[in-house]
Amino acid sequence: MTNIHIWVAVFILRTNNILCQASCGDKQTVIGAEGGDVLLPVHQIGVEEVTWVSVNGINNFARTEPGGFLRIRDNRYEDRLYGTTDGSLNLTKLTREDQGEYRASILSNPGNRICVQLYNLTVFRRLSEKDIGITLVNVTGNGTCAVALLCAVNGSGVTISWRRSHDREIHGINDFLHVPDPETNHSFTCIAQNPVSNASRTVTPREYCQPESREVSGSGPFLFYWMIIAKACEILLVGLFLSINLCLSRKQ
């Protein structure tokens, strides 16, 4: 048997071994915060060793054994990994680059049984008040003052809600808030939440009801509407011009 036949046989055996590995259970969802740490747990009995693979990568990056034994095979994980007494893996100093899918090949006794456990890691940033921006969308006058506000948050996976001051109930579960005139003296708080943190910012809508604020803030929406109308007219004119040219070319 030539060397090439040996390599093919080894490749087939390894491929069959991977494909025949049973699943340890459902894929586990793991959530962590930037700079924090997470645990990739192993729940099997009689664990001998666990080989850890990042699906985003190519090679095995670590191996653990019960008792806290850890062998790191990728320098990018130095000083960031810790083994536990049951063979689980603790990943610390998280960054957004760590998120993705991980696979643990778990060797257990008796029977030298191998099963595969999948994990899906998502890393979120910790929110602060600086991540929240509240923008005035519109102010209506004529003797009264109703205010429309928009809350925007820097970050992904964020849920936004509004709460009126001294109220426990949520006033609105979205980024837009309309405040009628009788309520503009109350303070309203925009609350931003993700799976690892929450932050808030408070505003009093009556502050936007001053004449100078109304004049400046109110011009924004009207200017926006005029821009839309102008763009629509431009599209209609171009379409009309093309239609006339098409008709003339057909007559010729």
From TrEMBL:
Keyword field contains tRNA processing: no
GO cellular component: membrane
The Ig-like domain, residue ranges: 143-204
Residues passing through the membrane, by range: 223-248
Keywords: Glycoprotein, Membrane, Signal, Transmembrane, Transmembrane helix
Chief location bin: membrane
UniProt entry tagged with the keyword Zinc: no
Localization per Swiss-Prot or TrEMBL: Membrane
InterPro entries according to UniProt: CD2/SLAM_rcpt, Ig-like_dom, Ig-like_dom_sf, Ig-like_fold, Ig_sub
Database matches in Gene3D superfamilies: Immunoglobulins
Record's signal peptide: 1-22
SUPFAM superfamilies, A to Z: Immunoglobulin (SSF48726)
PANTHER family assigned: LYMPHOCYTE FUNCTION-ASSOCIATED ANTIGEN 3 (PTHR12080:SF55), SIGNALING LYMPHOCYTIC ACTIVATION MOLECULE (PTHR12080)
Name of the protein described by the UniProt record: Ig-like domain-containing protein
Species of provenance: Leptobrachium leishanense
